[in-house]
Amino acid sequence: MDTRxxxxxxxxxxxxxDPDSGEAPYWDEHTVTLEPHRSVLEGLLQAKAxxxxxxxxxxxxxxxxxxxxxxRINDKPGLACHTHLEEALKRSKDGKITVEPMGNxxxxxxxxxxxxxxxxxxxxxxxxxxxxxxxxxxxxxxxDRVSMVDVTQTMACIQxxxxxxxxxxxxxxxxxxxxxxxxxxYRFVGDPRDAEQQQRLKDLAEDPNGIYNCTHCFKCxxxxxxxxxPMNQIMRLRRRAGSDHHIDDRNNGHRHEAAFVTLVxxxxxxxxxxxxxxxxxxxxxxxxxxxxxGAELVSSLPVITKAVLRRKVNPKLALVPHKIPKQDVKxxxxxxxxxxxxxxxxxxxxxxVGDDKDLEQPVAGAVEDRSTT
Length: 373
Prior knowledge:
4Fe-4S; Ubiquitin-like (UB roll); 2Fe-2S; iron-sulfur
């Protein structure tokens, strides 16, 4: 960002709302004059100081550390102190920078939302502290490097609530524990010092609003300003619960995932009509004949009927499996075989970029360069 550019005018369109006033929300516009590399937060504070002292905005460190100034800027969640005015202007639709309070949380005033009512309530739901093993070691509990790196990504969370603001599952089901709290849960599930990993996973798997309520929309991954990737942490919780601890949850979450994987491996694409019976009746073609699958199909008939009447589902296409060329099916199966043949599961982690041994091995080109100097 070029800090030598002269000051220019920026128009901020701020969503104002005071629930105690009884009046409806409205938009308020102010033009501020600042250098382009200044932040949206600085623009808001100038508008507050120069035009209207009643503008409600929360901030503290102004250095993208405390997470206090989380807002929605041009329909995207982010930190007001970490968003340059020039960048925000480029993303605006009409030359005006729109600033709103974060979503999925009640508004206290203007850009200030009630974090206690939603965000912190859900964080407390996952027991956000380490439950130490006993007996307590005489000296410190040394954690191996791999385990520490594994949880480092979740430790980067600054609790700004940006992921909560854009979570589509929470829009539909406000009871969903949510991306921030579940990422926090992995912080302790992945820590070898924690004594209650099994209990934590069983609790989150059995909860109807738990880990299997995420819809993989990636909105929380896009929203996080610190690269925590909450959805990835939720998927890791699922793998630990279902594959490592073999938790057969009452929500049918793990069986549903297993059926999904089997169908894609067998046919190269998902066969939706087979998914429900296999999830409830067993992961095979005979699953549809299981009494449990039949009962679930009968209970789903009203939803299926409504979908057909609204032309959301074509019965003929739904009952006939999708067909793709044989070589493509073979290629898909080879991917499954390659991943399945690995001795250890490879977990993607933003902070894992190599191994210490890689640093110890001399680079041939580097040696040659030194010898010629």
